[in-house]
Amino acid sequence: MPNPSETFRTIGLSVKTFLRLLPMIWRISPGKFTMLLVIQLLLAGIPVYQVVLTQKFLDAVGQAFQLGWNHGQDAYLILALQLGVLILNGYLITAQTYLETVIGTLGAAFFQEKVAEKAIRIPLIEFENPAYHDRIQRATNGIETRGIRVLFNSIKIALGLFTVTAYIALLYNFHSLLSLGLLLFIIPSLYIYIWQGKSRFKQLVQQTAESRKTAYCHYLLVGRDSAKEIRVFGMFGSLLHNWRTLYMRLAKDRLKLEGKISFLQAQSDALLYVLVSAVTGLLIWIGINGKLTLGLFVALGQTVTNSQSKLQNISMYIATMYEDVLHVLDLFGFLDQEEEEKEDEARIEFPSVLTQGITVENLTFRYPGQNHDILNKISFQIKAGEKIAIVGDNGAGKSTLVKCLLGLYKPTSGVIRYDGIPVESYDYSGFRKQVTAVFQDFMHYYLSLRDNITLGDMEQKQNNAKIRTALDKSGSTDWVDELPGGLDTELGPVFLGGSELSLGQWQRIAVARAFFRDFQVVFLDEPTASLDPMAEAAIFDRFTELTEGKTAIYISHRLGSCRSADRIFVLKNGCLIESGSHKDLISLGGSYAAMFKTQAKSYA
Predict the structure, then answer these.
(1) Which of 81, 227, 384, 461 is within CB 3.0–4.6 Å of 357 for a Cys-Cys bond?
(2) Which domains does the chain have, with CATH numbers?
(3) 232: how many CB neighbours lie within 10 A of its CB?
(4) pLDDT > 70? residue 523
């Protein structure tokens, strides 16, 4: 159970979070937010006014019953006022609900956009860290509602306290014990709700990794990518068992906590009923002693009942806000993460023409949580305009080296220079406009063919000539013309009307996407791995033409395609063990020569 210091800490965290959220929400829609505050302020005052009207109405009715019709006009006037207040209250509640929905919808878009903008600025290496995926899941858990709800609940608590303060003042005029009893209402439920919120959040943090694994297992059961192998290898039973085991283990822990919460809540409610009965009994005693009219007794009874409900709501808002604040702090923690390029750092503009080329000095790289280096003290120089092939066994570090050269991974040690300047000193946006790449694990964007190629340069989206030039460079013009919607054909089987492509066609689109950009340096990681031999030969036959005047670095396991390279780098166990032209390395008789001869035998 929380102690008083925890309660004050909760209030402090909530105030701090509220003050950070307020300007964010204000910027979304200042007019609607102001209207919402005015409406909530009116709604906070109406219950107190209704109590006063109730007392006057009952006293007027009682007088009319005793003295006749001539004294009933006041009762009808008050009844009309009550009707007006009820109608106004209904309209205000409707307007409040609508404005909260509007602001909530805009707020959800705002926070989702903030998360997306942050994710693109976080160093790519973070995506290799399981802790990052736990953090992003918690940060986005209920992002549509939690941030807005903290703000709304803060306002509701403040206005609820305003209403309760008025109730307390009203009761204090008749007996101090009445106001004291009112204050006691909040203590049990407040403590239970705060403990509940803290416990649920703690459990969420503890279960994040396993929740992700459970979701992944279920995705395997129902997803498209895994459907073929699950059927062919009969995996469904095993995967279903794994998912059920994980799910039930999580559910068991959650239900255990919810059972404890329900038991404590029942005890709290029982205590609250005792307090309400005690306060009502005190009212009866005061009335018996002749200090209350019937109307005043009913009004004060209504005050006690309303206070109980209002204080319970305040307790619930505080506890819900406490849980939401912990989630929002996770979101803020994500948004406050270090970025790969800090806004206040001066950056150098990347040269419009690369003259000196790329220099790598003692490059070492290790993935987070690993105990060995993927790249180990690699050094080399690439001249501007040079064509470099990188070869080696699986796991030699080829793709990791490309990501380092692209500035996507920051070296553990060592330095990468473009024209003599460390890559991290350049403006990343300007640098990345001058490079292009085809990755081994290229993306299938289930969008139009046009979008698949132009997403990185939407200003050129309608430049059909440039799009078709890029498609021609990838050898795609023959089958693209057969698509039902041409360049505007939706691709992929996920959405209605989409046209599915072969893996080779998807890879050609990835190549076209790379060559759509005006670049100085191109990185190609197995750019033809999914192509048939004829298509691969056609692309590599044009490789020199396609990269004329450009610096090109490409990875290939098919060593025949490396013959046209100016130099070949051979990696093994993260080390650069050989470097030279195809002819030089064959003459050397080392690892490259052995690999080449082995492949050549398969074509004999």
Answers:
(1) 384
(2) 4-334 (1.20.1560.10), 353-434+522-604 (3.40.50.300), 444-518 (no CATH)
(3) 8
(4) yes
